[in-house]
Design goal:
Structural class: alpha/beta
Radius of gyration: 17 Å
Oligomer: single chain
Distance between the termini: 36 Å
Helix content: 25-40%
Strand order of the largest sheet: 3-2-1-4-5
Strand content: 5-15%
Number of strands: 7
Order of helices and strands: HEHEHEHHEHEEEHH
Number of helices: 8
């Protein structure tokens, strides 16, 4: 019951800050597998920087998936993230902290480490509205939102706006799974992936292995 009430608080109040006009001076954290980084990830950074007036966003590719999901090498995903966000280099920082930590990547461990490295920073965790129902399953969620309150980015899922209202701008639905499947079948997803990222994928033959689709 306690976890559910915290989830509801995060959902309707964005971890305290979602409905405020600004989080000026705060640092947004955008984590994920980034397999591959796609237009939705890039638009999420733009959205967060503009809506909440963040100082910057730190992009955090996971080193190992907590549920054992097969991933391309970390170096490839880091390189693709560099290509995807390089046009925002003044406002987006790419971090390999999860590689430095090693092992399975849990969000709470990453945020603790970043807090240790940057004790004066005010972190805010960026999440898509579509994953809010899953946050109650996250490890030590109560501590997590105390260290990095949620900023919820509305997202269109199956035609509905998740994490926002019809009056708010919402990010389009972009599926990493579908992108990987399209690449494997020879269908180039040029509208879903930044051009430089797509070039990298094709040059390195990523996602042709069935285990990575």
């Amino acid at each position: 019951m306690k976890s559910q009430s915290i989830l509801q608080h995060a959902q309707y109040n964005g971890g305290i800050l979602n409905k405020t006009a600004t989080a000026h001076g705060c640092v947004g954290l955008l984590g994920g597998s980034f397999s591959p980084p796609h237009m939705g990830h890039v638009l999420a950074c733009h959205y967060a920087l503009l809506r909440w007036n963040l100082q910057k966003v730190i992009v955090l590719p996971s080193f190992a998936h907590p549920f054992g999901k097969p991933l391309p090498p970390f170096e490839d995903r880091l390189a693709m993230c560099h290509l995807a966000f390089m046009h925002l280099r003044d406002y987006v920082e790419l971090s390999d902290v999860e590689r430095q930590m090693g092992g399975v990547s849990y969000t709470i461990d990453t945020v603790r480490e970043l807090t240790r490295q940057h004790p004066s920073a005010k972190f805010r965790l960026l999440v898509g509205g579509d994953i809010l129902p899953d946050t109650q399953k996250w490890r030590e969620f109560e501590e997590l939102i105390s260290l990095a309150p949620l900023l919820v980015i509305p997202r269109i899922t199956d035609g509905d706006i998740q994490g926002g209202t019809i009056s708010e701008a919402a990010l389009p639905e972009v599926s990493s799974t579908k992108i990987r499947q399209n690449i494997a079948s020879g269908d180039t997803p040029s509208g879903a992936v930044p051009a430089l990222v797509l070039d990298y994928i094709l040059q390195h033959g990523l996602y042709m292995d069935e285990a990575l689709r």
